[in-house]
Model the fold of this input.
Amino acid sequence: MSDAPPPLPSGSEWTFEAIETYDREIGRVAADYGLDVYRHQLEIITAEQMMDAYASIGMPVFYHHWSFGKHFLSTEKSYKRGQMGLAYEIVINSDPCIVYLMEENTMPMQALVIAHAAYGHNSFFKGNYLFRTWTSAEAIIDYLVFARNVIAECEERYGEDEVEQLLDACHALMSVGVDRYKRPPKLSLTKERERRKEREDYLQSQVNDLWRTLPLSPEKEAEEAERRFPEEAEENLLYFIEKNAPLLEPWQREIVRIVRKIGQYFYPQRQTQLMNEGWACFWHYTMLYHLYDRGRLGEGFMLEFLQHHTNVVYQPPFNSRRFSGINPYALGFAMWRDIQRICRDPTAEDRDWFPDLAGSDWREALDFAMRNFKDESFIAQYLSPRLMREFRLFNILDDPAEPMLRVRAIHDEQGYRRLRQALAEQYNLGSREPDIQVWNVDLRGERSLTLRHFKYQGRDLGESRDAVLRHVASLWGFPVKLEEQDEDGAVRLLTEVKIDRRRNR
Amino acid sequence: MLQIIDRRNDSKNKSAVNRNRFIRRFKGQIRKAVQDAIARRRIADIDNGEKVGIPANDISEPQFRHGRGGRWSVVQPGNDRYLTGDEIERPEEGAGGQGGGASPEGEGLDDFVFTLSREEFLDIFFDDLALPHLVKTQLARIDEYKRVRAGYTSTGVPANINVVRSLRGATGRRLAAGGPYRKTLRTLHAELAELERQGAGDSPRAAELRAEIARLLRRIEGLPFIDTFDLRYNSRIRIPAPTTQAVMFCVMDVSGSMDHQKKQIAKRFFMLLYLFLTRTYQHIEIVFIRHHTQAMEVDEDDFFRSRETGGTVVSSALELMLRIVRQRYASTAWNIYCAQASDGDNWDADSPKCREFLESSIVPLVQYYAYIEISEGEPQNLWREYARVLANHPQRFAMRQIGGPADIYPVFRELFRKSLA
Done:
């Protein structure tokens, strides 16, 4: 090895040249491992800009709203008091993939972030099926610019207060404003712009048709009375309101749509947090070690890198003061490492549990898993008994019908499957969040909107429901009812907001 | 191809807009917090930022969430004691262990605390006082500049041309530029005179010399009398206006009828004057004089807190003030301001005495004397006497009967107008 490549720049101060060198070398390693990534662009920012980015959910451009100011203030406060370090990185699922590097960071940190975000997250965004189906990396930045301009324009024309109220209401419904099963059409800025006007007119005509006040013939009316609208319950509240709310102005529908589109864009991130973070950790670890093994990185670099790495992937036990749930970085990282281990060095137990995986090519196995799973199914498929033992996982059932909590399963032979199933369920957004759907609209009567909460495992809705319902009512413009359907099918009315916006005008 | 973009210098303070929106939205709560802060603060602290708390409930962003109750199955790490089938006591409310999904946001009920900047704090303070915008901007800005001469420059506007300097420059230039010609002229003249002396004044050489001399004279003549290069302009630079010192007397009636509410209004009155003075003077001293039948100099805490019973003799405070001025602030280097707050009660025979005393001794001494009467009823005898002072000294004396903070500003109207002019 006489012509071994020279070591990479050492020392803790970063320079633009050093960043470039590191990026080139890490990129070379990533290509060797077959990571398929978008082009990326590194942006150097200050701590304050990092907090800015935080406040607007990580986006480089975003519309204005007081709630982002609130997030900024609270971030700033805890940062200044030293309660919280800033996240090392923010990476944006766009093409080119944008990665922020904070100027305060040392060179090893920058290298860590480049490996983690510019190659780890980036390849996940490009490969995972949820991101591929539900987001359009090439269009998102343009769309955000479009959104910000539309909203600024509306503020100018209709007043900040008016727009603010509307945004408040939309934000309250953001988590019930996503399509979970239907695939949304791709975002395209030109189309959005072109169609905006067209859509406004069309939508309004549709709505008007639905709310026609001319009397129908008696037979038809009887038939109408039978019919429920919507005929099938609609899970996407924002979509339903955008298309059907009787009193919204076209510009208000446009804003509802914007909030809905952006919520939809972030939905895959919430479904794949464990996988995505674990994946990025796995790759920064693997790639930097790869460079170290070839003598390109010094001991000092590795010490600093490992200190940050172990901080990130540390899992405190349940009875520790630092415990706040399962650390997605820790479990995710451990799972990807574990899959690699099962492929390369399987035990008898692994062969028993993962016959197809044991002994196969680890790169292909990881790539397959990254592309085709989300947190819930990833755990159900890949969590190994060995990892459950390592994490000393146990499952507790809290049933209000019983006086005590019960331990249902621990990390033993009888418990593995149940434990794995329970943990997978814990990552199922569908069951973690309340299931609320649009059930009916009283088309011929008082025009009230009925939402229905499908109760699961006896879990009630929290107190915030009244406040959210008021927001729904302000969008709908007529009374809104919230019903609850028990698991045995019994339905009862929870609460009702009576308003009639026409009278307030 | 890798792109590295240095964003450190662009879009600083991007979220300032969002921050302002936040403050605007919760103005009601923030204003209340600011009022509490004013009650707590010392007068000289008015000019700082403030930590403000807003009830977390008011600013929550509601979403549909699960409440307590229902069956929850939770997987936790780090089991060091349990076996399948073990039963565990339910942890107390709020303790860890359970409820992984119960409140994913971990929303507490504590106040949402953040820090208002100095500008934001003053803005809200001013809002209460209904200050005109011009005054607000003046108060919020510290820098005051005065333009002074600072030599000459070679660039400037025509109005600033310095004629003497410019012409002196032009003369110098003409001398310098014409020098070589004149030297040649001298030799030519000498040669011509020599020829004439020899009687060869008509020779072709003499004609040649004459032509050359004429040409050189035209050359010298042709030098521009003044060139743009010669122009000099008076230069003026801005330097911070000289600051001096001021003393502010706060005089307040602390007889039984001045309750907490009235004192809070009086405090804002003093604060506003203080704020004005900090803009104009670098060094400010505050003297607190409280009085009932007797006047006393006290510190700020006693000033706002203690309450006495008994009658009121205003002139005692005026006399004390004069004594203090003679003792400590006699030199002309001190600008004296006085703010007096009272509920208007005074011992009948004392009021004419106050007027005379003010007119003869105090008003001539001070830059500005502001009086507020915090009451709703008919003006009392003190008011009537003061009204006569006002008639004689409208520039330096101001008074007003007020019910709330918004009435305070007009008392200072003259004062602010003067400084803005």
